[in-house]
Structures are given as structure tokens and as C-alpha cells.
User: Fold this.
Amino acid sequence: MSTVSTAPRRTEPGVRGIPPGFAAVLGVLAVGAAVGVGQLVAALVSPASSPVLAVGNAVINYSPEPLTEFAKTHFGTNDKPILLSGMAVVITAVAAAGGLASRRFPRPGVVTVVVLGLAGLLAVVAATVFSPLDVIAPLVSLGVGLVVFRRLHGLALRVYQPLPEAGGPVTEPPEGAGESSGGVGRMSRRNVLFGSSAALGVVSLGSGIGGLLLADSGSSSRNAVTAALAKATLTERAPAIPAGASFAGSGTPTFITANPDFYRIDVALRIPGQTASDWRLRIHGLVERETTLTFADLMRRPLVERTITMTCVSNPVGGNLISTANFIGVELRPILLEAGIHPGAQQLFTTSIDGWNTSTPTDVVLEPDRGALLAIGMNGEALPPEHGFPVRMIVPGLYGYVSGTKWLSDMEVTTFSAQRGYWYQRGWSEQAPIKTESRIDRPRAGSSVPAGTFTCAGIAWSQPTGVEAVEVRVDGGPWQTAQLSTEVNGRTWRMWRTDVDLAPGHHTVQTRATNHDGAVQTDTIADPIPNGASGWPATSFTVV
Ligand SMILES: Nc1nc2c(c(=O)[nH]1)N[C@H]1C(S)=C(S)[C@@H](COP(=O)(O)O)O[C@H]1N2
Ligand SMILES: [Mo]
Assistant:
């Protein structure tokens, strides 16, 4: 930059103010510092109080239902990274705009920092679960944003905007002349400005990442539970999955879904952390004996292992919000019977640590063969954090939103009219048994397959009854019975496959399942809302 230029510089009289690019950067730096420090302080003081995540949760909770549904069905398990990236873009844009508007005076940037900070504070205070300590992180965050912006802005003004006493035209001092030109020179100010800006960027990023890491450091409790489960004697082991239980070679999923691949659906941007030793479940309401269970209480009860296919009500026909695991847990039914459930009770109103809640019908949970669990293990390890560590509820045959409470903390035995759950309040049904459905995994929609014999394959489910038959038809022709995989139990999916031999051209394959009670999958097309998608899946493809 030592080439002598005759082009006017921004610092020359008449073109005063901070250059636009750097002004925008100042806004982003100040807000970035606020976000990063907020994250770090939250991790240290009260993990649930992160201002950014609280705003994200507010976005989830107050989003119009069609938007939430779009996100769940189209992004599924990726909905959270997508929301966070979207927020990052919006916050950066707002911060940059605030900075840009502050080329001469700090006020627009200050207002921007205050508005964003107050949004964080409001979101934290209005969160479902709030305790007074939670205000610390958003307040510190706001303070840091303000101080950083004022300081950097002041420094930048002194670098780019000549001070009145400097008088006359301001020219760039020659390289290295900074220290000598009247006390603190422009050059050294500039170094301070750029140096502190860069340092600030690094520190904000570091504290943000540090905060996220700290908040997620509950792994020792999980490891202890995994070790305890490995040593525990189970009163019921899930039978080994027979080799013929899936047609993975023909394009179906493997029978058991590995934990990292298990679909994840919840409204928790931050996984609510709790150790097993801190965990308590209070069972109260319409019971003879109000009970509080600890994790040790659960470990002392008979532990059972069950293979169960969970399904999300938001799963569209053909969708992948369905997975299967071996869950370890304790039977819920005897716990309720011991508590002495009143005859008038209709629902278990369960709440998770982060305040999400739902209604589960008591008559379903009390069915002797239903196999409802308080689950603590999944595929041989403690529940993964995102699947509800330390304890979640699972009721085979009911969609997750009315039965699968993760990070379980409270169970009120009550009537339906007394309490309404999170999704009910957003237009979903009070009760939601899983519908009999099938899915085509091969061929893929829109794919081209070579002429000759081709194996179509997929899955079907009808928990807790089990799948009796799957039929396949091509181009609306006669239904053919497909080959079924070895049945594991009625609470799980079953795979199907069948060979077809088709002439070149466009074709459409369809399926329908029948359960052990003879109920046939309906062809009535329904959206996921209010109680689960239905209809025969249809896949169009080309034979070449
Ligand atoms: N605490 C909590 N539990 C929850 C939810 C939630 O948002 N919060 N979502 C439910 C829904 S809609 C489903 S489908 C299942 C999904 O469980 P998974 O993520 O372990 O697959 O969890 C249920 N339990
Ligand atoms: Mo769900």
C-alpha cells in the first residue's frame, strides 16, 4: 500500500466517516462478541440461558404451524442446523446494517446492539423454563455488545474522521511515522483498531465455541450409565435379530437403526442436559401415592430390552422419520399400578426438562401387552443426549409426539381436559395411534432401471399389531403379494420385496400393507397434520 496514489482517500476532507466495509465489520464484531460471550456465560452459569438459542427456540415455538411442518417434513433431522444457519445470516445482516448506518455517529449501531440484546433477554425470560439466574447471560451479552461497539467505533472514528483540533486536510502519514506525529499517531491508532478488531473476532469465536463445548460436556454421566447397563442383569433380553429380518441387500434399511442414524425430531435447539444422578421423575395427580423416582430407583427395578420401531407423526408417505432400536428400560405399567392410579384418570401428562409436554392415554399405557417403557438405554448404550438422556418414555404403537417424551422430568396423571400438550395446542390430535403404512425404497422415484427382472423393496409397519402382508402393483394392475422378511415382533417394521419384469417405458409401482388384524392400509390420502399421513405410496420410474 505504499504506492503513492493521487486518487482521493476516504479520509480526506468532505469524505468523512468510517469506510462502509469497515463500519459493517464493526457492527458484526460487536454483535459477534455479544453472542460469543453470551454463549460462554450461559454455559458457565445456566446452560438454558443462552440468548441466541433462546431466540431460536422462540422462533420454533412461535412459528406458524405450516412452517414448522414444512421444516419437519422437508429438513427432518437437519431442521436445527438449517434454523441456526438462517439465524446466523439474519443476525449478521442486521449487525452489518447497524454498523453501516453508523459511519459517522454511533447511535444506529448502539440501537441495533440494544435491540438484538433485548430480543435475547426477552426470549430467555419468556422461555418455558426460566429461573432468575438465567438473566445473567443475556445481560452480560448485551453489556459486552455495547461496550465493544462504543469502543471500536470511537477508535475507528478517530482513525478515519479527523479530529477538529487536527485541523486542515488530513493526509496519510508515511509508513512508520505513526509514533512521531503528535502523541498517538494515526498509524498506531489504526494498528490498535485493526489489531483489537481481529483479536475480538478470535475471542468471540473462541468463547462461542467454548460455550457450546462446555454446555455439551455431560458425557461422563452417560459413560457411567453405559457401563452400568453393560453389567446389569436384564430380566428380558431382545432376541437376536435374525439374518432374514431385513432385505438391506435389496435396498431396505438395516433392521436396527444405528444410534447416529436414528431419526431425531424435537423442538429443543439446545439438548437439555442433566446427569443421571440429578434425574428425578415426579409422578403425581390422580394417584394414591405420589412418587418421586431417581435413576438409581430405575436401575433397581427389573430391566427389559425391547426392539421397537418409533415413528413420527410428521412422516410423510414415503418419508424417513421412522427408525428401530433395541431399547433398555423399565416397564411403565407396574410403576403406575404401584402409584395407585385413580379410575377417572385419562392421560399421563408428561413434561421434559426443557418444558415440552404431551398427553399419553392411560388406557394404552396400562394394556398388559403394550410394553410401554421408561427407557434408559438404546442399542447397548445409555440413551444418546439427542434421544432423551437420561430417561425418556416410549409407548409402542403411538406416534412419538403423544408418547415419546425425551429428557423426561414430570408425569401428572390427569384428565384430557385438564392439560393440553405442546402439539395439541398447535392443531394436532389429542390421541394418535400409528397408522398402518408401507414405503417403497427401491426403485427410487425418477430413477432409470435396466430392462429385465428388477427387485422392488421397502418397509411396512403397523405397531403394535404387526404386518401380515404387503401387496405390490405396477401401473394400477393386479395386486401381487410381496415376500416378507422374518418377523421380529409386532412393535417393529417389516421389510418386503418382490421381483418385477417390465417392458421399457415409464412405470409406477404402488404398495399397501395389511396388519395381523386384517386391517388394510387406507388409500385415503391424508397430510401428516392432525394425526399422521396416509395413502398408498406410489413411485414412478423408467425402465430402459
Ligand atoms: N422433550 C421432547 N420430547 C419429544 C419431542 C420434543 O420435541 N421434546 N418430540 C417428540 C416427537 S414429535 C417424536 S417423533 C419423538 C422422536 O424421538 P427421537 O428424536 O428419539 O427419534 O420424540 C418425542 N419426544
Ligand atoms: Mo414426531
Q: What stands out?
A: The chain has eleven helices and 20 strands. The two ends are 63 Å apart (CA to CA).
